[in-house]
Design a protein that fits this description.
There is one protein chain. The chain is α/β, with parallel strands linked by helices and 443 residues long. Among the domains are: 4-126, Methylthiotransferase, N-terminal domain (Rossmann fold); 144-259, Transcription Regulator spoIIAA; 385-440, Nucleic acid-binding proteins (OB fold (Dihydrolipoamide Acetyltransferase, E2P)), CATH 2.40.50.140. The protein is 35% helix and 24% strand. The protein contains 14 helices and 21 strands. Strands 2-1-3-4-5-6 form a six-stranded parallel β-sheet, with helices on both faces. It has a five-stranded mixed β-barrel with strand order 17-18-19-21-20. The protein is globular, with a radius of gyration of 22 Å. The structure holds 5'-deoxyadenosine and iron/sulfur cluster. Iron/sulfur cluster is lined by residues 12-13, 15-16, 49-51, 82-83, 166-167, 170-171.
Amino acid sequence: MSSRKLYIETYGCQMNVVDSEVVVAILQQHNYQLTEEVTEADLVLINTCSIRDNAEQRVRSRLREFKRIKQQNRGVSVGVIGCMAERLKEKLLEEETVVDLVVGPDAYRELPALLQEVESGQKGINTLLSMEETYGDIRPVRMDRNHVTSFVAIMRGCNNFCAYCVVPGTRGRERSRDPETIIREATGLFNKGYREVTLLGQNVNSYRWVNGSRDLTFENILEQVAKIDPLLRVRFATSHPKDMSDELLRVMARFPNLCKAIHLPVQSGSSAVLERMKRKYTREHYMERISAMRKHLPGVSISTDIIAGFCGETEEEHQQTLSLMEWVGYDFAYMFKYSERPDTFAANKYKDDIPDEVKSRRLQEIIQLQNRLSLESKELDVGQTYEVLVEGTSKKSEEHLFGRTSQNKVVVFPKGTFKRGDYVDVTINSCTSATLIGTPVQS
Ligand code: 5AD
Ligand code: SF4
């Protein structure tokens, strides 16, 4: 039987990147081959995100383009998978007539069966969430371009129910992946030449595997992955400030290959806003955790997520976010305007009462401050020497390579005889707010 061609596009978080790789693995076993040309595909899948309204709008505009392609190539099927599929369910089939298939994040094993239904002229839909599914036994088909860095999912779902967030609704309850399969996958990547893995979960600190006498926590699994090889760098995302333990910081301090970068989303610098967001920590607790991170891990870099203009946010509460950012001195941040999401606690209980122009102005102030903090953080690196893991050729110059420091900062330097996957000691000579520029240390 001749094989069919699958084209897949991925939006949203890193977990979606891995999910797409799982989907490709499942479909490859059913005679589908990946193509990078949407026009030659028999099946077009779009793996979607619902986190903010603009993420969904982007997907809808892509679907309009797929509609044009379908008009030219009547044989092609279009499927929506991921968080938007889960959130909208049948509504998506009604609203977007181009769509043949709707599959939620826990139903990817059903794709081959659903595609048979689609082939017989029906629409296919499965949005059941699961308490157990982790796709632990499936080896994702990697679609990264550098063959140096990759993601390994260790848990799925979220039990936190932050007031603004759709994720507990689109990805269901927390469940952890069998540790054997995590170690096997990370070891396999290292043996293939990969030199960095990022352990992924919506809330990695909640990783827990209990089986007979075994009781493994996130700290345990992190240590096991770190021990695979000292040449394998290990990162993780995302952590919740309420669960960031001293034990985790001690494990990170013990292993040089556990990268000294922590992403710790704060969302707001005001305890009152944090309470309305149902974040389960205060400004003071967050600051205490930052102090603990700096104590256990000198030189650690810290990044965050911030939401501007959450329900009821006063000018003073916004100022508290700015002052906390300044106090922490974040190395990097993702910054967003609050976007009300249907069926969340905030949508049900609060008014989205901050006018859009106020949200925009506050976000601008946050971005401007972060630009300065990012530059200051890079300026402190000038004159220092860092070990850089090379990821590829610089976008701007064939003669330069780029890679990252353990602190997750991008470094660009002259190529010499180095190549992807090498560790190179680089002395930093100058910087921008986004990039460090250096020269390799002569050996
Ligand atoms: N509006 C704006 N930003 C949001 N995030 C999550 N939900 C929303 C929302 N409704 C942000 C948070 C989270 C990141 C992944 O996206 O900062 O940490
Ligand atoms: Fe988007 Fe969140 Fe779903 Fe990831 S889990 S795709 S960020 S809505």
